[in-house]
């Protein structure tokens, strides 16, 4: 994701990642044979329409290597979805901080190896500006340790596609922060795509409530 952001605006990246619940639903159907509820199917269709509106903008896909960045983000989504299904059922240590630590340690080794293979330049954190250092510290504490541990915890209690709806708020925040601090443009089509996409994910998240309501009404009738 971080690598892809050199080619893709943060708002676009967050909006694309907001389709994560849709990807998990499809994998649950393909890999586990679970039936997708009608309201979830509606949510998937709406989400696909939202993604299409998002990526079809000429001012977004016209940039150099933008499609490469978007392709990398999609691969991240696919691997994240597959791993979420695995973690939800795997026999892992009961300590969720240990689970998070193992995953981050493995990821760190992979990223260091990849960085060396593509010849990236390295620098020490002491050479970075204070704003970068504070941002890194914030991401380590809140974005990684707390958020990722909570994600692993919820995967054992809630269906994976519902846990993935943690991405609801990401597009809105990313678009606003990108506009506020990075002078990124929020187009009308981006705003419409965001509304449509989040509406699709909303349908996925509310399917159980709708099922309970239908059962209640059928009993009364």
TrEMBL record:
Q: Which residues form a coiled coil?
A: none
Annotated keywords: Membrane, Transmembrane, Transmembrane helix
Q: Which residues form the EamA domain?
A: 1-55, 68-206
> How is this protein positioned relative to the membrane?
Multi-pass membrane protein
According to the record, the segments passing through the membrane are: 12-31, 38-55, 67-88, 100-119, 131-151, 163-182, 188-205
Record-given protein name: EamA domain-containing protein
Give the family this protein belongs to, as stated in its UniProt record: Belongs to the EamA transporter family.
Entry's localization field: Membrane
One Pfam entry name: EamA
Superkingdom: Bacteria
GO cellular component entries: membrane
């Amino acid at each position: 994701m971080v690598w892809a952001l050199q080619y893709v605006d943060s708002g676009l990246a967050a909006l694309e990642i907001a389709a994560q619940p849709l990807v998990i639903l499809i994998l649950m159907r393909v890999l586990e044979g679970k039936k997708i509820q009608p309201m979830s199917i509606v949510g998937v269709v709406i989400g696909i329409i939202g993604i299409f509106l998002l990526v079809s903008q000429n001012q977004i896909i016209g940039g150099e290597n933008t499609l490469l960045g978007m392709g990398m983000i999609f691969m991240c989504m696919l691997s994240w979805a597959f791993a979420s299904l695995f973690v939800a059922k795997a026999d892992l240590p009961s300590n969720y901080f240990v689970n998070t630590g193992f995953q981050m340690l493995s990821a760190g080794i992979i990223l260091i190896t990849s960085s060396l293979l593509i010849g990236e330049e390295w620098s020490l954190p002491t050479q970075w500006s204070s704003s970068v250092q504070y941002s890194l510290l914030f991401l380590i504490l809140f974005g990684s340790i707390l958020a990722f541990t909570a994600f692993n915890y919820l995967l054992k209690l809630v269906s994976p596609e519902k846990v993935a709806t943690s991405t609801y708020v990401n597009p809105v925040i990313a678009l606003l922060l990108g506009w506020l601090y990075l002078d990124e443009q929020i187009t009308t089509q981006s705003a419409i795509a965001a509304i449509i996409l989040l509406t699709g994910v909303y349908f996925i998240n509310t399917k159980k409530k709708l099922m309970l309501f239908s059962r209640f009404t059928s009993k009364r009738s």
